Amino acid sequence: MYSHVFFDLDGTLTDSRPGIIHSVQYALRHFGMEMPEAALLPFIGPPLLYSFQQFCGMDARQAAEAVTRYREYFKDRGIYENSLYPGVAELLRALRAAHRRVALATSKPEVFARRIVAYFGMEDCFDCVCGAGLDGPRQSKADVLAYACATLEARDMRRCVLVGDRIYDVQGAEALGMDCIGVLYGYGAPGEFCSPAVVRQCSSVRELRQTLLPEMTAG
């Protein structure tokens, strides 16, 4: 039984595709660039600086400017082009009621993560909300996860699990020596969960709840 459960945000708790895609398109238009929506799906998950360089061929200076433009759209519009997956709030509150420690650990800047949690009225669902810095510390999932562990004073990694939908979540869990549960309803591609750290793959929030709270869902 896991005592500490860490959740990714985009593609795990929320369907954030519209807001992220629109924000990326807004940034690319600043450079006179257009890319099909399908080519922008890999932006959901990893840090933006990496994504603009990896997926759009930008250098570091251009990527930094693209992040600035992305946030112009995202901070007031894209952040709310977002929806909870059905059953997520109920799962989180059930975990809290079962005395699990629950944390949000996202590569999204923490200031935005907190606004999203408040927008959905989920402040009571988490013991802590942890994210990346806007332009400084905690840019990788491993960094954010380590920060979340420190915040919750979680020391026994055998009692900790990260729930996420992308390979970056798997890599973060591996780096800290904790288990990972992969969700198949998010934005991961086939093969992203091929790691010994992934102890289970769940195709729905209902299956995830059965995995995390078997004592409450048996029978």
Give a structural overview.
The protein has helices spanning 17-30, 37-40, 48-56, 60-74, 88-97, 110-119, 141-152, 167-176, 205-212, 214-217, and strands at residues 4-7, 14-15, 83-84, 101-109, 128-132, 160-164, 179-183, 198-202. The chain has 219 residues and is of the alpha/beta class. Strands 5-4-1-6-7-8 form a six-stranded parallel sheet, sandwiched between helices. Strand 6, helix 8 (167-176) and strand 7 form a beta-alpha-beta unit. Helix 3 (48-56) packs across helix 4 and helix 7 packs across helix 8. The radius of gyration is 17 Å and the shape is globular. The model has no long low-confidence stretch (mean pLDDT 94).
Q: How is this fold's topology laid out?
A:
Blueprint: E1 4-7, E2 14-15, H1 17-30, H2 37-40, H3 48-56, H4 60-74, E3 83-84, H5 88-97, E4 101-109, H6 110-119, E5 128-132, H7 141-152, E6 160-164, H8 167-176, E7 179-183, E8 198-202, H9 205-212, H10 214-217
Parallel strand pairs: 1-4, 1-6, 4-5, 6-7, 7-8
Antiparallel strand pairs: 2-3
Helix pairs in contact: 1-4, 3-4, 7-8
